[in-house]
């Protein structure tokens, strides 16, 4: 019998954490060794022999959690937002001193969402105008979503590399926020509405045509295949990986 992969979940009492605990507990080849709330001591991870930790906490806690994991040789799969460029750079520096440890920072674990972002980045250079609408439940604490930020960044990069000029926009006066937040020049609009879970539309347009790429997560079960993929893969991917697409074969 093969050895079970020992996994711990941080943020285990939240909606994502609860779903992750159930998914890991029922997954073949995995043993859930700890399910911790935000205030539980991290030393439990070491005491229980965790090999992979899944961080689903809050932006104010995630950096310290991941640092603890890396310093103790525990791989980390992270779905918490708040990882800006400075935090990622600091994490990459830390990982350089722990070259056998892997960390995955994933703005979204839904495989369909990862594919939609990939398709949007591939399509972005072919259209004159691009905008993003992201829609989430009203309990979400950040806006725009991490998924929308990453989508906009990848689209903007593709457009810049292809030499595509800025999208036309004759707006001269507008109420604050009317044109959304500008992420590398791409407008991103955030909706917070009761009854929603996680949804995103990428709108691309040129004279005479429009393309919409939309993904919908109707419940937290949609994220679990990606979480399990991350847990199974992170140990074989030392260093820092940003985006679950780094674990998928999307270039073929």
TrEMBL record:
NAD(+) binds at residues 11-16, 79-81, 106-109. Residues 113-244 form the Dihydrodipicolinate reductase C-terminal domain. Residues 6-109 form the Dihydrodipicolinate reductase N-terminal domain. One of its GO terms (cellular component) is cytosol. (S)-2,3,4,5-tetrahydrodipicolinate binds at residues 137, 146-147. The active site is at residues 136, 140. Keywords: Amino-acid biosynthesis, Cytoplasm, Diaminopimelate biosynthesis, Lysine biosynthesis, NAD, NADP, Oxidoreductase. NADP(+) binds at residue 39. It comes from the Bacteria. It is an enzyme of class 1 (oxidoreductase). GO terms for biological process: diaminopimelate biosynthetic process; lysine biosynthetic process via diaminopimelate. It is found in: Cytoplasm. It catalyses: (S)-2,3,4,5-tetrahydrodipicolinate + NAD(+) + H2O = (2S,4S)-4-hydroxy-2,3,4,5-tetrahydrodipicolinate + NADH + H(+); (S)-2,3,4,5-tetrahydrodipicolinate + NADP(+) + H2O = (2S,4S)-4-hydroxy-2,3,4,5-tetrahydrodipicolinate + NADPH + H(+). The keyword NADP applies. Coiled coil: none annotated. Its EC number is 1.17.1.8. CDD domains: DHDPR_N (cd02274). Its main location: cytoplasm. SUPFAM superfamilies: Glyceraldehyde-3-phosphate dehydrogenase-like, C-terminal domain, NAD(P)-binding Rossmann-fold domains. Pathway: Amino-acid biosynthesis; L-lysine biosynthesis via DAP pathway; (S)-tetrahydrodipicolinate from L-aspartate: step 4/4. Homotetramer. Catalyzes the conversion of 4-hydroxy-tetrahydrodipicolinate (HTPA) to tetrahydrodipicolinate. NCBIfam families: dapB. Belongs to the DapB family. This is 4-hydroxy-tetrahydrodipicolinate reductase. It comes from Arthrobacter wenxiniae.
């Amino acid at each position: 019998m093969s050895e079970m992969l020992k996994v711990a979940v941080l943020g285990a009492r939240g909606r994502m954490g609860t779903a992750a605990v159930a998914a890991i507990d029922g997954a073949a080849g995995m043993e859930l060794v700890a399910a911790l709330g935000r205030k539980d001591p991290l030393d439990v991870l070491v005491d229980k022999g965790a090999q992979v930790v899944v961080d689903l906490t809050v932006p104010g806690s995630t950096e310290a959690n991941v640092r603890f994991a890396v310093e103790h040789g525990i791989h980390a799969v992270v779905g918490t937002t708040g990882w800006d460029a400075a935090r990622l750079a600091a994490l990459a520096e830390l990982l350089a001193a722990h070259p056998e440890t892997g960390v995955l920072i994933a703005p979204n674990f839904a495989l369909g969402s990862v594919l939609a972002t990939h398709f949007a980045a591939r399509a972005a250079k072919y259209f004159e105008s691009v905008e993003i609408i992201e829609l989430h439940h009203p309990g979400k604490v950040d806006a725009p979503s991490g998924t929308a930020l990453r989508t906009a960044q990848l689209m903007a990069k593709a457009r810049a590399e292809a030499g595509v000029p800025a999208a036309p926009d004759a707006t001269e006066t507008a109420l604050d926020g009317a044109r959304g937040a500008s992420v590398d020049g791409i407008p991103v609009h955030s909706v917070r509405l009761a009854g929603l879970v996680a949804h995103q539309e990428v709108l691309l347009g040129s004279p005479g045509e429009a393309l919409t790429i939309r993904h919908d997560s109707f419940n937290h079960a949609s994220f679990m295949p990606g979480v399990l993929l991350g847990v199974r893969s992170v140990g074989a991917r030392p260093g820092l990986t940003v985006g679950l697409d780094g674990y998928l074969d999307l270039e073929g």
